[in-house]
């Protein structure tokens, strides 16, 4: 098996106003994506596939992928709005592609082994990648199967405001439900709570939450394609509707077409939910470098 990491980066240019304006967060100008690839290599991954847009292809290869393309096999898939099955049309006012599930389908022709799929702008931590690699080796490559690497809630909070998290329920190590909880944060007593309407509920710091760190076997992709066709039949006229991995996996799980194992990690997740988070991310990475967890410069 060639352990494969898929990184969804098609929105990277539009979110940051251009590929060269990616915010540096590491001590030597590294971006979060650099740390994900570095951790994946350290964990033992042999291949990375970037899902990008064709209009940022040259800039992405030159300013980002060139740093590590001699350390790991690098391939590309392209997510474009017009990449939909025949007999469907694009709404005239639609500008964005169809979501993370659509992005993953762009890899269908180039993926042959079990794979991990993550976001480009989230920091997941080395232990999470090690858990992910272990999960890939335990998947049945001939049948639809998958897993979700989950985090302890306390390891995913922002000090600058509320966050939304998918709280996971499990049974015998399998995922049974993900419940979206909104406005999660610490109260004045330092306890974690979420707000539901006008009511505040305390929630445990060790509750397991999803940060969209998935692993799948290749037979999932034809199932996902079939669901995308159904999605377009029902929602293809929407200008902003999205075909999202969590929702589609949950539907397949509910229909008992796939079982999702849950793998726990003690890693700390971080990303930029609020503008103020950038400084916290920089401080966290600087601390990890000082501890010797990462080199500086990274590459």
Question: Your description of this structure?
Answer:
The structure is a single chain. The protein has 299 residues and is an alpha/beta fold. It has a domain at 4-139 and 213-252 and 268-290: Spore Coat Polysaccharide Biosynthesis Protein SpsA, Chain A, CATH 3.90.550.10. It is built from 8 helices and 11 strands. Strands 1, 2, 3, 4, 5, 6, 7, 8, 9, 10 and 11 form an 11-stranded mixed beta sheet that branches. β2, α3 (57-63) and β3 form a beta-alpha-beta unit. The longest helix has 16 residues, at 220-235. The protein is globular and about 55 Å long. The mean pLDDT is 93.
The amount of helix comes to 25-40%
Overall shape: globular
Q: How many individual helices?
A: 8
Calculate Rg over CA atoms.
19 Å
Separation of termini? 26 Å
Number of strands: 11
Question: Low-confidence parts, pLDDT < 50 over ≥5 residues?
Answer: none
SSE arrangement:
Blueprint: E1 4-8, H1 12-16, H2 32-43, E2 47-52, H3 57-63, E3 73-78, H4 100-105, E4 115-119, H5 126-137, E5 146-152, E6 163-171, E7 174-186, E8 192-196, E9 199-202, E10 208-216, H6 220-235, H7 245-254, E11 260-265, H8 277-290
Parallel strand pairs: 1-2, 1-4, 2-3, 5-11
Antiparallel strand pairs: 4-10, 5-10, 6-7, 6-10, 7-8, 8-9
